[in-house]
């Protein structure tokens, strides 16, 4: 049995976010940081095996990039892991954290924390089929199974099957009574539980996820765990990633500017040839690019008003940038 021994640097990663971290979003985020580990949206085994779309499409520039896979049938999971490796993904990650009803009804996601042997069987078959790392993203507990002993038992069972890398959302999930959105906010964060896991299992690679909003917080957590995964903050305020390479990876050089990113993404839009593609498919991920900057609201409004509808602006990003630059000049003139 091949045991995952990943060369991937997991110090900082961007979380898999359903309907958000598609290939256009990941290309955009990669422009901002060369080093962060990117994850796809969750893709189910059913979609990969029976679906007609290309659910594995990604841009070469996205590396390192991991596929997050949803499923619980070991042979199907292994089959899809092979597909991911053949397409060039750097990692395949098992979703044991999503609490949505459509995930629960498919017998995968957070409900699998109550079935650690199922997850262990998936890990064994996947690792026997591929050479890329097989990792697990989970919660600290579900429903009434929320004591440290329950969490530790899950980790031990899956680790003993060969998985050495866990990304832990430091909240439990309520599978009854809370929506997926509420499960990201209402259950309290319990970072010490993740710290304890790392202290007790130092041989495992443990990343922490949940509620992290600044690089100062990331660095504080890194004193206790191997990596930090950030989700909503990286999406809502993507330029937050611009300092990651310098502060966490000791990379020299100035980060790319927001305006340069816009020009790069306009070129990216012009290269797209998929049937039905619209500039909004890219621009919707960029609404927060100028957050906190002069013209930030104007940027969001321009993209939202001109990127959708029957006749979207083909030069959407360039014209939005012009609006931002004018707002910037207006502020500078008032100051002077």
UniProtKB/TrEMBL annotation:
It is an enzyme of class 1 (oxidoreductase). It comes from the Bacteria. Its cofactor is FMN. SUPFAM superfamilies: FMN-linked oxidoreductases. FMN binds at residues 16-18, 68, 137, 169, 209-211, 231-232. Signal peptide: none annotated. Residues 14-308 form the DUS-like FMN-binding domain. CDD domains: DUS_like_FMN. It catalyses: 5,6-dihydrouridine(20a) in tRNA + NAD(+) = uridine(20a) in tRNA + NADH + H(+); 5,6-dihydrouridine(20) in tRNA + NAD(+) = uridine(20) in tRNA + NADH + H(+); 5,6-dihydrouridine(20) in tRNA + NADP(+) = uridine(20) in tRNA + NADPH + H(+); 5,6-dihydrouridine(20a) in tRNA + NADP(+) = uridine(20a) in tRNA + NADPH + H(+). GO terms for molecular function: flavin adenine dinucleotide binding; FMN binding; tRNA binding; tRNA-dihydrouridine20 synthase activity; tRNA-dihydrouridine20a synthase activity. The active site is at 98 (proton donor). Its EC number is 1.3.1.91. InterPro entries: Aldolase_TIM (IPR013785), DUS-like_FMN-bd (IPR035587), DusA (IPR004653), tRNA_hU_synthase_CS (IPR018517). Catalyzes the synthesis of 5,6-dihydrouridine (D), a modified base found in the D-loop of most tRNAs, via the reduction of the C5-C6 double bond in target uridines. Specifically modifies U20 and U20a in tRNAs. PANTHER family: FMN-LINKED OXIDOREDUCTASES SUPERFAMILY PROTEIN. Belongs to the Dus family. DusA subfamily. This is tRNA-dihydrouridine(20/20a) synthase.
